[in-house]
Design goal:
The chain is an all-alpha fold and 336 residues long. Helices cover 73% and strands 1% of the residues.
Length: 336
């Protein structure tokens, strides 16, 4: 349940593609295999599997929006990307996932112990990168990173707990996706603002903008997992349904469905992931008939509009707001 966004789809702007290119160049120069090879090879491997590089690009973009050269933010961007990939290595171990981005996961290619240790080293390496900033900047970046990293871990634990809990509420779910996904989007933008040494108000505002959009993105991702077009979504739809994940769609359907429909939905979510004959379509029908599908779309729009209100009040020029505004606007019509 991780944020997945196509940068070409969202911006189509040369500046953003340039940030991505420059970040990848920096990543390749800074991360290499050293001895002991079995510690560092998995780190290079997971970081080389690709991905959209959304979070580091947001760091670089925010730095320039608030008046700094993006190059000053490269170490902060690299720290965010290494931390994100550390979380993927450990998530894959917890989920016993065989593939990541179409390739073997670290623990499958090596072993679980190597995955754990290499992941730990990545987390430490992320902290090391902040040492490249002078005293006050180092402190501010490290404090934000520490807070965010703890929240991501808390979000992951909530997600694990929800698999066996029968009393998950909408409030619980929104808190989980905020911690597991949205806070890292907010922190990415705020780190760029910190490097640019902008005002406290702007740092807080850009974080809040990213946090709210991060929630909207994850809700959209959950919606597309059920109702997206497999050809544009980039993967088979219905994965969350197969895995019996209690997403916003599911929780709203249980809340608003009639007694018989709610009972049917709960029964369908008791079926083993190995037995999915007709399950996906049956669940999707209940999502629509209960009104959950429409309510989810409304929730996505609500969080997006909340983000735009934060952006409107941000004390920067309209020209500098434009990349952030376009980022949010594309969400409303996202198909992948």
């Amino acid at each position: 349940m991780l944020l997945c966004i196509d940068l070409h789809y969202f911006w189509g702007m040369q500046d953003i593609l340039y940030y991505r290119k420059e970040f990848i160049k920096y990543l390749n120069n800074q991360v290499s295999v050293k001895e002991p090879a079995n510690l560092y090879e998995p780190m290079v491997y997971i970081l080389g599997l690709g991905g959209k590089r959304l979070r580091p690009v947001l760091v670089l973009m925010a730095a320039e929006i608030f008046g700094a050269n993006y190059k000053k933010a490269l170490d902060a961007a690299l720290a965010i990307e290494i931390f994100h990939n550390f979380s993927l290595v450990h998530d894959d171990i917890m989920d016993d996932a065989p593939l990541r981005r179409g390739r073997e996961t670290v623990h499958e290619k090596w072993d679980v112990n190597t995955g754990i240790l290499s992941g730990d080293a990545m987390l430490i390496n992320a902290y090391q990168l902040f040492e490249n900033y002078e005293g006050s900047l180092f402190k501010e970046l490290a404090q934000l990173f520490t807070k965010t990293a703890m929240q991501v871990c808390e979000g992951q634990q909530y997600d694990i707990d929800f698999e066996t809990r029968e009393d998950v509420s909408i409030e619980d779910y929104l808190k989980m996706i905020e911690f597991k996904t949205a806070v890292l989007v907010g922190a990415s933008l705020q780190m760029g603002a910190i490097v640019a040494k902008t005002s406290i108000d702007c740092k807080k505002a850009v974080y809040e903008y990213g946090r709210l959009l991060g929630i909207a993105f994850q809700l959209q991702d959950d919606y597309l997992d059920a109702f997206g077009n497999p050809e544009t979504f980039g993967k088979q739809t219905g994965g969350d349904i197969i895995e019996n994940k209690k997403t916003f769609l599911y929780l709203k359907a249980v809340e608003y469905a009639g007694q018989n429909e709610a009972g049917e939905l709960e029964h369908l979510y008791s079926i083993s992931p190995d037995d999915n004959s007709g399950k996906i379509e049956a669940v999707k029908t209940l999502f629509e008939s209960s009104g959950a599908a429409n309510l989810t779309r409304q929730e996505i729009e609500k969080y997006t509009q909340k983000a735009f209100k934060v952006l409107e009040k941000m004390n920067i020029s309209e020209e500098k707001k434009e990349p952030l505004r376009l980022f949010g606007e594309r969400l409303m019509n996202r198909t992948r």
